Amino acid sequence: MSEIEDMNQTQKILILDFGSQVTQLIARRVREAGVYCEIHPFNNFDEAQIRAFDPKGVVLSGGPASVTGSDTPRAPEVVFALGVPVLGICYGQQTMVAQMGGQVETHDHQEFGRADVEVTEPCGLFEGVWQRGDSARVWMSHGDRVTKLPEGFRIVGRSDGAPFAAIANDEKRMYGVQFHPEVVHTPDGARLLSNFVHVVCGCSGDWTMAAFKQDAIQRIREQVGPDGRVICGLSGGVDSSVAAVLIHEAIGERLTCILVDHGLMRQGEAEQVVTLFRDHYNIPLVHRDASDLFLGRLDGVDDPEKKRKIIGGLFIDVFEEEAKKVGGADFLAQGTLYPDVIESVSFAGGPSVTIKSHHNVGGLPDRMNMKLVEPLRELFKDEVRVLGRELGLPQALIGRHPFPGPGLAIRIPGPVTREACDILRKADAIYLEEIRNAGLYDAIWQAFAVLLPVRTVGVMGDARTYDHVLALRAVTSTDGMTADSYPFPHDFLSRCATRIINQVRGVNRVVYDVTSKPPGTIEWE
Ligand code: XMP
């Protein structure tokens, strides 16, 4: 069901997902236009749910299938019967055309990447953006194309590979584009989507973070009730911190935060969290140093997945113990985000390959008999940051790079020791300090050091050294799904290497990782 059933007065756009890699971007663009929206799989949101959702408009996403194949995805018919505007993007356009009585064919002239659309007619989507006669840069990715329009539709834009690149039926308020307006490679795309939700669907754009915050506080109060108690695991990351502060605004002292220090955190991290929450916000916080327990159990373990399982399991044990000590709780707060909630559309049918099991505390509620409070489950990461600002959290915390749950354990290939963690912490702190000093921190998605189980020979002050290699990694990314290595100037890297080798005993060589994702991953394990 809808994530915000009780926000009925909110104007909502429904995005039906046909499995495109970029469906989430449609949602982001719609929300940037100040309109709430949700993504649901085309085949798992039935007529009753669609009617109950009561959308002001519907967007049909792109997808990998071909409308010309047998038994390929179709939009639920109710979408075209609701009387609200519909925008079909790529596959969404093709299925709309096919379902409304037009024709789609597979064509030799496929278009992938940049293309130019010639605007042939004005239409609501283009208002204030494109004029008749304009040539506009867009991003295409399609093999099939529309070859015959259904009745009532007209062409409003065409390209070399797609004579029906943009189509409109003004009476029914149905629109279709063969290109992808949601990606940044279609420079005017965000304005076209904004036109769809404002000009065509008539949404007012009043979905602001201030409104969301008030609403979220109200919903937390209703869910937790007048006496309910909530516990929240704090990691020092943005999501759990924002969730904690929001819940604290809603229910005050009935929230207790628990920080389990597994000995795998970065330099000064646990102390910063304690200072911020206990001293600054006055939020009850239990700080448990469980480093002996975690490092003891990790002794001799070198397999990355085993490390993750041990850390995940121990985290639950310690959390449970600490929760009992504070008298238990009825609710567990989690900083779950919208991308974790969106159900993905799978055409292959089989399970996808697990590259890494990114641990979360999903096992907790069952074991602890608690209900979940997940106040961020409708938000994207960048929206959580905006909410954090709205709540007055310091920029240093809001802008923090993501840090994995298993912490330094997956940045020390091979067995993890306390000594290795200490070396890595020092080197990592120097690297991050240099990045901050160079004013580059916010331009980077994630930057960190990796301590390699490789020793090399060096010479320092006429003496031979035989110490570890440290790899530096920095990537740019928008969602962690794909990433590029950050192109530091050479002198920056040399400066980091010199400082680290001079100041961190145990490291005598520094290398920089220039691998993108794919084929690499961001973390080394
Ligand atoms: P990869 O290494 O898969 O990382 O490219 C993508 C993002 O996920 C983070 N990551 C994790 N986060 N538990 C977490 O909570 C994990 O086990 C884990 N492994 C990777 C990684 O830091 C990056 O932001």
UniProtKB/TrEMBL annotation:
TM spans (from-to): none
ATP-binding recorded as keyword: yes
Gene3D superfamilies associated with the record: 3.30.300.10, 3.40.50.880, HUPs
Residues covered by the GMPS ATP-PPase domain: 207-400
Binding site for ATP: S235, G236, G237, V238, D239, S240, S241
SUPFAM superfamilies assigned to the protein according to its UniProt record, in alphabetical order: Adenine nucleotide alpha hydrolases-like, Class I glutamine amidotransferase-like, GMP synthetase C-terminal dimerisation domain
Active-site residues, as the UniProt record annotates them: C90 (nucleophile), H180, E182
E.C. no: 6.3.5.2
The protein's name in its UniProt record: GMP synthase [glutamine-hydrolyzing]
Domain of life: Bacteria
Gene this protein is translated from: guaA
InterPro entries: Class_I_gatase-like (IPR029062), GATASE (IPR017926), GMP_synth_C (IPR001674), GMP_synth_GATase (IPR004739), GMP_synthase (IPR022955), GMPS_ATP_PPase_dom (IPR025777), NAD/GMP_synthase (IPR022310), Rossmann-like_a/b/a_fold (IPR014729)
Catalytic reaction list: XMP + L-glutamine + ATP + H2O = GMP + L-glutamate + AMP + diphosphate + 2 H(+)
Subunit structure: Homodimer.
NCBIfam families: guaA_Cterm (TIGR00884), guaA_Nterm (TIGR00888), PRK00074.1 (NF000848)
A Pfam short name: GATase
GO cellular component: cytosol
Protein purpose: Catalyzes the synthesis of GMP from XMP.
